[in-house]
Design a protein that fits this description.
heterodimer, A: two-stranded antiparallel ribbon, 2 strands, B: mainly alpha, 5 helices, 61% helix
């Protein structure tokens, strides 16, 4: 423990330098903006900002990008409550009771509870990241190739189980993603695979153009199809403070939401979205009078908004401790780290303690900034909501193009993005979730490498995956997860959970 | 969020989500196996470049076939309408950005792609494109070229 305290003080020392404070603020501001604006998510924005981070020191860059992700969780609730449209996919459930509250003239209370709940969750999650990363790093240090293989498989299975929609189709999306990750030169043999003689593909398909196509371009097309992502009037804010009664009802929900979010954030495939859903379902299940939900129950705002912020922050744990990104946003963080020559994983903590602890400390500072950005300054963000989407989408498109180009300075990547934009739209149409594909895509090369190494060690015998207890444990857990989710009763419960939106 | 799960079958049955995705996955799986047929599998203790792709190809084909079979008794349909106007114009604007950028630099690329993208919704007038394109080109130049000094050709012949 004294060790931890010392590290945290060191982290705060890094985080409060004027430069890092500034970038933390920029990240929080941008995150709130992205959160408020529907049709623009953190994945596309972080990808757009990657070129900006080239010129920054790595600590400042990562502090800014992290701030953007959890900042978006704050901003998303504003739009959800005032306009009945999720500003961020993770605030989908907040629209239900948040907007009902706003229609009853309690918009101020809903906004305040959402922001205060997020702040509380953010503080707890920061502490959790600080406390649990260190032991996990130690565990990860003893992992060998088969164990990593098992962990990666488990991560993908968990992602599939937690994803929305059909489990079988999500498994297929993971497999497709794994394959896309293998395109390019095989590191072991030097042979180029699936490049069709196109030299630009020899280095593989870039992660950024694929992610930007699936989450940026496809989203623009789909938003335009839905008629411009936003309609409806903005509700007025009256009193920006909850009553004593509301606060009394909300705080246990904030606690539960924080707990659920912190737990689900750590799981591979987890993060903000699933945390918010789960928290809402739990509140409804344990409520004495479930019929209040949908009519403006404050717990229906407090729990998911706390959960999504907690989940957003604890999803840094697998990335920082093991180098495994649990969701697309963390995959981009991994990309940002690689750009700066940092290999994410157990070694970051010992080799770059300034980065590790500085980022954790900045999360707490960022949350403090966000509560100020989001409560007293709420009027400014409401103004942004009045920008029509028909102007905004061209801006998003151009920034996506410039962002993708600058990562590798090649227009081929822009074309790849266009291709995946169309593919992403097709996937939406046939109801396949793009998130598992992205996860498979990132983990593909890691999986192949650990698979290869395991087989070298075992001289070609697959039994190595069952002989090592850690690996066998992960594989057994994966199998259990898959079986559970395919059982009819559980599947029904899961479908209900996702139907709440 | 989108509707999903088992819905009661509607009056006119929609194309099945499982069938469509199954066909796509099986098709892609077979394509992987076909293109990857030449890559060496290696030996188990030293797997070659074809080993993992072969594994994934088989897996993807199998899941695709499973989905096709399953579509007999699942009822989830897809949304068969395609928003051609945004689909074509947004992807065209992206491709145009790449081509024009290659040929003549950042500012023309922004102007052309905003011009195309602007038509994706009927609500926009040509004047929107002119103002948006101009403002965006200026800010992109200010931010990326002046501010971040990224080596982007601004306006080349």
């Amino acid at each position: 423990m004294p060790d931890l305290l010392e590290n945290l003080i060191f982290g705060f020392g890094v985080a409060v330098t004027p430069q890092n404070l500034l970038f933390c603020l920029i990240g929080a501001l941008l995150g709130t903006l992205v959160g408020v604006l529907p049709g623009l998510g953190p994945v596309a924005t972080i990808a757009m900002l990657l070129p900006v981070t080239f010129t920054l020191p790595p600590v400042a860059a990562l502090i800014m990008l992290a701030g953007l992700y959890y900042g978006a969780q704050y901003g998303g609730s504003t739009t959800a409550i005032l306009v009945n449209i999720p500003g961020e996919s993770s605030s989908v459930v907040t629209t239900i009771d948040g907007h009902a509250m706003a229609r009853k003239g309690r918009a101020g209370s809903a906004l305040a509870i959402a922001a205060l709940g997020s702040f509380f969750a953010g503080c707890v999650a920061t502490a959790i990241v600080a406390v649990f990363s260190q032991p996990l790093v130690k565990v990860a240090g003893s992992f060998q190739s088969p164990d990593y293989f098992g962990l990666l498989v488990f991560g993908m299975v968990a992602a599939v189980v937690l994803a929305q929609g059909s489990v079988v189709r999500s498994v297929a999306m993971v497999v497709l993603g794994l394959f896309l990750g293998l395109i390019g030169t095989d590191i072991a043999s030097g042979q180029t695979r699936f490049t069709f003689g196109i030299s630009a593909l020899a280095d593989g398909v870039g992660f950024v153009p694929v992610a930007m196509g699936l989450f940026g371009i496809a989203e623009v097309i789909a938003s335009l199809e839905r008629g411009g992502a936003r309609q409806g009037s903005i509700e007025k804010i009256s009193r920006l403070w909850p009553t004593r009664e509301e606060a009394r009802q909300a705080w246990p929900a904030v606690l539960r939401g924080t707990g659920i979010g912190s737990l689900l954030g750590v799981l591979p495939g987890g993060g903000a979205l699933i945390s918010a859903f789960a928290a809402y379902v739990v509140e409804k299940k344990i409520a004495k009078d479930p019929s209040r939900f949908g009519q403006g129950a404050i717990e229906g705002v407090a729990a998911p908004e706390s959960a999504n912020n907690a989940g957003a922050q604890t999803s840094f744990i697998p990335l920082l401790a093991m180098g495994i990104p649990p969701n697309p946003v963390m995959a981009l963080m991994l990309g940002a780290m690689t750009i700066h020559g940092i290999v994410p994983g157990p070694k970051v903590m010992t080799e770059r303690p300034d980065l590790f602890w500085g980022m954790i400390a900045s999360m707490w500072i960022g949350n403090l900034m966000l509560i100020i950005i989001n409560l007293p300054l709420i009027g400014i963000w409401v103004k942004f909501l009045q920008i029509p989407y028909r102007w905004l989408y061209s801006v998003i498109l151009v920034f996506c193009c410039i962002g993708v180009f600058t990562v590798n300075n090649t227009t081929t990547d822009v074309l790849v993005m266009a291709l995946f934009g169309v593919f992403g739209y097709l996937l939406l149409k046939i109801r396949c979730e793009p998130a598992p594909l992205i996860l498979g895509f990132i983990l593909g090369p890691m999986l192949e490498e650990n698979f290869r190494r395991s087989l070298i060690v075992s001289r070609g015998s697959w039994s190595v995956f069952l002989e090592r207890p850690i690996c066998a444990g992960f594989l057994a857990l994966s199998l259990l997860f898959l079986l559970l989710v395919l059982l009819p009763t559980i599947r029904k419960g899961r479908e209900e959970a996702f139907k709440e939106g | 969020m989108s509707q999903q799960g088992t819905k009661p079958r509607e009056l006119r049955p929609l194309p099945s989500a499982d069938l469509c995705s199954g066909l796509m996955f099986a098709g892609l799986g077979v394509a992987i196996l076909w293109v990857g047929a030449d890559y060496s599998l290696g030996v188990p203790s030293r797997i070659g470049p074809g080993y993992v792709p072969r594994l994934l190809g088989v897996l993807l084909t199998a899941i695709g076939l499973f989905l096709i079979v399953r579509s007999w008794w699942t009822t989830e349909g897809i949304d068969p309408t395609v928003a051609w106007r945004p689909l074509l114009l947004i992807s065209a604007a992206t491709v145009a950005f790449a081509l024009v950028f290659e040929a003549s630099g950042l500012v023309p690329a922004i102007l052309v792609s905003v011009g195309i993208a602007n038509c994706a919704t009927p609500e926009n007038r040509w004047s929107t494109a002119v103002v948006l394109g101009g403002v965006l080109a200026f800010f992109a130049w200010l931010l990326f070229v002046k501010g971040l000094s990224l080596p982007l050709p601004v306006w080349s012949k």
